Each structure stands twice: as C-alpha cells, then as structure tokens.
Amino acid sequence: NKEQWSPSKYVLKNDNLKGSRDKKDVTISSRLFVDLVASFYQENIPLYVSGNLLDLGCGKVPLYEAYKNYISDNSCVDWQNTIHKNPFLDIETDINQPLPIENEIFDTVILSDVLEHIRKPEELIAEIHRIMKPNGKFILNVPFFYWLHEQPFDYFRYTKFALQSMLEDAGFKVLKLEPMGGVPEIMTDIFCKNVLAVPVIGKPTVLLSQFITRLFLKTGIGKKVSKKTAEKFPLGYFVVVGK
User: Fold this and answer.
1) Which CATH architecture best describes the domain 2-183+236-242?
2) pTM for the full model?
3) N or C end: fewer C-beta atoms under 10 angstroms in the chain?
4) Is the pLDDT higher at 85 or at 240?
C-alpha cells in the first residue's frame, strides 16, 4: 500500500527529518524527544541502510520516507495488540513470538522504539539475527529516562551495558551505541509532559520551554552539557550492529 502511505510520526521537509507537528501523531510535549530520534536516523540511514529492509514493529511506517531511496524492497511487520493503526502490514504477528520469516533474507532491520515493549527481548534479538543476511545491519533506538507509554505494554529501560550484552550474545557486532540527549533534554521532556495539562498556560509554556532548550543546545556550553551528562543520564540510546 505504498501509494496510500503518508507521513506520520516523522516528516521529511527540505531534506531535514523532524517529528511531526500534528498532535495526532506526536504530542506537543514529545517534540523535543522525537526530533532527537529523527536526527539520529537521518544521520545513519544513508550509512547503514541498503537492500531488502524489514521495518519491525512498524506502526504507521513513519521512517519510510527517510529510507525508501536507499533500499530495493521493504517488508512491514507488526502485531495486532497496539494502539496504532496498521494499514501497511505485510505480516501481522505477535513479535514476542518466533517470527514467521525465513532465514537470512534481510539486509537491514529497523526496530524503532519497540524493544522496550518486548517481554523477552533476547528472544526477539536472536530472531532478528536469524532472519538477517551475513553482513546485514540492525538499527534500533530505545528510550531510557522516559515516561511510561503504550501501557501496559511498556516493560523495560535498557542501559548501554544491557544492550551491548544482549546484542553480542546473539552474535552481533556493535558498530555504534550512542546516548541520545542528556540532562537538558530530560529535564525539558519531563517538565513539558507534566505542565502540558495545565489549563490555558500549559501549551504555550511547553512551546517556550522547548524553544529555550533548543537555543541552549545550539550554544557551545549547551552542547557540552548535553554530551557530558548523557553518559550517566541518557534520554535514550541509538544502536547500529552488524551480523
């Protein structure tokens, strides 16, 4: 259903991938976090995405516009028990279970904001290793200092040590494991998520807070504070591994 696809969580505009400003896809309070995730994918998709791609836990396939020009084909897989509509699925399955997919058929696998919702993450990682071709790339991101979401299907927050251990135990080689955001981003995200519901002043306060944080992060000291604090206080992680 490629002809029916339209941007949802992420929007590519003027070659810049950002979070949607449509409140149906991204809440106002989550814009800073989603923009941060988008920037990592924009940087790394050209470097690591190729060939036959699996978008696993795809939801509305929000990254399609970002990766479509780097692949030969894509498959979209997700489960039924989710709050998101799934009109673009090639396979509908519970990804907590063994995947109904043959061995070694994908060059690239993307798992975006999904692993925290998997009850037995080691089993899914092993399945991804099984269905990937030799020298394939597996790209994922996960939150860390982040609110509970898609409840009750929000199970884990992984440290970088847990991610590295699980991925290497499955046979992957870690190519990139980077924190996303530090204390400035975390404080802004928590503040915005709590103040948004305040009548009258909530929305403008959130927008002003995000604006100030973005300005701060463009300064030398802002970049330094974010990078330094991200080592102990990451908002999330971005990971690329190879088979």
Assistant:
1) 3-Layer(aba) Sandwich (3.40)
2) 0.94
3) N
4) 240
Instruction: Retrieve residue 90's tokens.
Output: 């090639």
CA dist., res. 233 & res. 220, Å (int)? 19
Cα–Cα distance for residue pair 8/19, rounded to 1 Å: 8
Residue 44 identity (one-letter amino acid): N
pLDDT per residue over 90-114, tens digit each? 999 999 999 999 999 999 999 999 9
Return the sign of the alpha-carbon dihedral for residues 66, 70, 74, 77. negative
- What's the whole-number average pLDDT of the chain? 96
* Strand order through the sheet with 73-78: 91-92, 73-78, 52-56, 106-112, 132-143, 236-242, 173-180
| Amino acid symbol at 184 | P
- Distance of alpha carbon 41 from alpha carbon 18, whole angstroms: 10
- Give the pLDDT score at 79: 85
- Domain ranges for the chain, please list them: 2-183+236-242
